[in-house]
Amino acid sequence: MDSDLSLLKLTSPHLSAIIHKIQHQERITPTEGLFLFEKASLAELGAMANFIREKNHGDTTYFNRNFHIEPTNVCVFSCKFCSYSKLYAHREEGWELSVDQMLEKVKSYDGQPITEVHIVGGVHPKMDIYFFETLIKKIKTHRPDLHIKGFTAVELDYMFRKAKLSRLDGMTLLHNAGLDSLPGGGAEIFDPEIREKICADKVDAAGWLDIHATAHKIGMHSNATMLYGHLENYQHRIDHMQRLRNLQDETKGFNTFIPLKFRNHDNELSHIPEVSAIEDMKTYAVSRIFMDNFPHIKAYWPMLGREQAQLTLAFGVNDLDGTIDDSTKIYSMAGSEEQNPSLTTEELINLIKQVGRNPVERDTLYNTVQAY
Ligand code: V47
Ligand code: SF4
Known about the structure:
α3 (30-39) runs antiparallel to α12 (277-290), α5 (99-107) runs parallel beside α6 (129-142) and α7 crosses α8. The relative contact order is 0.15. The longest helix has 18 residues, at 234-251. Strands 1, 2, 3, 8, 9 and 10 form a six-stranded mixed sheet that branches. A four-stranded parallel sheet has the order 4-5-6-7. The model has no long low-confidence stretch (mean pLDDT 94). It has helices at 6-11, 16-23, 30-39, 42-57, 99-107, 129-142, 153-162, 167-177, 192-199, 205-217, 234-251, 277-290, 301-304, 306-312, 329-332, 345-354, and strands at residues 60-69, 116-119, 147-150, 181-182, 221-228, 254-261, 296-297, 319-323, 358-362, 368-371. It folds into two domains: 2-54, no CATH class; 59-371, Alpha-Beta Barrel (TIM Barrel), CATH 3.20.20. Helix content is 44%, strand content 14%. Bound molecules: ligand V47 and iron/sulfur cluster. Iron/sulfur cluster is lined by residues 75, 77-79, 82, 84-85, 122-123, 154, 199, 202. Residues 75, 77-79, 82, 84-85, 122-123, 154, 199, 202 line the site of iron/sulfur cluster (SF4).
């Protein structure tokens, strides 16, 4: 595919200043980002986002071979959008895996060419930093080549505070044990008023950003997410992206930005209708245009479903995450189309090829493992 924005400049004069910036790889301002959300059509956004996507990555669409471990869904927090967690008082309704049970899960992938394990779950008051240090060390001893991407800033903030460790000391302890990078969860929406309404009690924006900055400082990479489609407006989305863009200017430690669509099944925000596919595509496209210093934009297919994930590849997305087995419950419990999110590598490759893109298996840090 090849795209050129000259024609768009003629047909969309109201966008000509922004198109000029995109053509010259210049950054757009928050006001321009807001203007795109409010005034640009879906076709215009798609053309601009796709231009950037193809300039940076051509048709390459990354995926990786990973699996998830969710140690527990017991959580001291009670985010209103969460369909997954159980309070400690009701822990018998949830699950709590021991180190050995999680190690058994790792062992069940022995001999398979998996490059990453993604560990994320609820914030359990009894699973402390030393519990996870032991887990990480055991995984690394068993399989040193496996990249461990684990723990949201929310989980880490709690672990560090409970152990009375500074963020730097806590992060260093886990990194030395074998934690390689951080996933992007827990960011939600940084705006304090919205955050207060949807997840009042967990780490705030400054804390989330500082934990990622600390990881970057000791050479770890991380991802960033944005939960959209609940109480926030476009201004809040732009503010969220702006804060991430600023930190990335300083540290260059983020790999990927992942917009996450709010799903409304069985949680305290169930009265809020889910946003449309059009809104999803707009959000991916504006993300690609606004986040000029983020190398990759990822669509998490278990949340969107397979067909919508394919569609995102025309709206700035160049990564579809991984082949994930059916233990990923955070979305299936929130109402995702994908009740047992699992794709074979062959299926994922076919999804990408069906929409005219080139599948490339990557490792967590976007080194090519194999092109198909
Ligand atoms: O922080 C929770 C979100 C996140 C709902 O870094 C919900 O590679 C929608 O961050 N509707 C955790 N979203 C998952 C996550 C993630 C996923 C895949 C890849 C990576 C990565 C990170 O899930 C939470 C929250 O924002 N979430 N409940 C819900 N009802
Ligand atoms: Fe706990 Fe995470 Fe659910 Fe919030 S989103 S209640 S921190 S499991």
